[in-house]
Specification:
Layout: H1 3-31, H2 38-41, H3 45-103, H4 105-111, H5 113-117, H6 124-154, H7 159-177, H8 184-202
Helix pairs in contact: 1-3, 1-8, 3-6, 3-8, 6-7, 7-8
C-alpha cells in the first residue's frame, strides 16, 4: 500500500474520530452534571460506555491527525510541524487520563469512595495526575489553534474547515481559562477537523503528484 493511500485512509479515520470525540465530550456534560456524586457516576454503565468511546475517539484522532498533517506538511512548514507535534503529544496524556478514569476510578469508588467524592487533602498521586491533565488540555488547545492557523496559511485543506478549527480552539481555550466546563469549542473544531479529514479522503492524487521526502526545512510527507 502506497503512502498516498495510507494518507487518504487516515483522512477517513479523522472523519470518524473527531466528530466522535466532540459528541462524546458533549454527552459527558449532560450525562454527568456537577451535582452527580463521582463515586456513583464512575460505577455506572453510562460512564463505562462514554469513557470507552472516548478512548476509541482519541486513538482515531491520533491516526487521523497524522493524515491531516501529512496532506499539507510541505505547505504548512515549521508552524505546521510544531502544531502537529504539540497536538499529537498532548493527546497521549489525555488518553492516559481517560484510561485511569475508565478502569481505575471504578475500583477506587468501591474501595475508597471518599477519595473521589471529597479528596481533601488531595493525595499526591491524584494531584499529579490532575495537574498533568490540566496542562495537557491547555497544550492540546494551543496545538489545535496553531494547527488551524497553519492550515489557513498552507491553503491545501478547505479554508472554512481551518477557520472552524481555529474558532473552536480559541473559544475552548478562553472557556477553559475562565473555568467554564463545557466543550463548546470541541463541538466547533470537531466538525472542522472532520471536514479536513473528508478533504484528505476525497483527494485523488494525480500522476504528476508524488510523495515528497523529508527535508531540512520541515517534513514533507505529501505534496499538494
Amino acid at each position: 500500500m502506497s503512502s498516498s493511500t495510507l494518507i487518504r485512509w487516515s483522512g477517513l479515520v479523522a472523519l470518524v474520530g473527531f466528530p466522535l470525540l466532540a459528541v462524546v465530550s458533549v454527552a459527558f456534560v449532560f450525562a454527568f452534571p456537577e451535582d452527580v456524586v463521582q463515586s456513583v457516576a464512575v460505577t455506572s454503565n453510562t460512564w463505562l460506555v462514554l469513557n470507552v468511546l472516548m478512548l476509541i475517539a482519541y486513538l482515531l484522532c491520533l491516526v487521523g491527525l497524522v493524515g491531516l498533517y501529512a496532506r499539507q506538511a510541505e505547505k504548512a512548514g515549521i508552524l505546521g510541524l510544531v502544531a502537529f507535534l504539540l497536538t499529537f503529544l498532548s493527546i497521549a496524556p489525555r488518553f492516559a487520563w481517560y484510561w485511569i478514569e475508565t478502569f481505575v476510578f471504578p475500583i477506587l469508588a468501591q474501595a475508597a469512595p471518599r477519595l473521589l467524592d471529597n479528596p481533601e487533602p488531595v493525595p499526591p498521586a491524584l494531584n499529579v495526575f490532575g495537574a498533568v491533565d490540566q496542562i495537557s488540555v491547555l497544550l492540546l488547545l494551543v496545538g489545535v489553534l496553531l494547527f488551524g492557523v497553519a492550515s489557513l496559511r498552507a491553503r491545501v485543506l478547505p479554508r472554512w474547515a481551518a477557520l472552524l478549527v481555529l474558532v473552536g480552539a480559541v473559544v475552548d481555550l478562553v472557556m477553559t481559562l475562565v473555568g467554564v466546563d463545557f466543550p463548546f469549542g470541541a463541538a466547533v473544531a470537531g466538525p472542522g477537523l472532520a471536514w479536513m479529514g473528508y478533504a484528505v479522503w476525497a483527494h485523488q492524487q494525480t500522476p504528476s503528484e508524488s510523495i515528497a521526502p523529508l527535508t531540512a526545512g520541515g517534513p514533507s510527507l505529501a505534496s499538494r
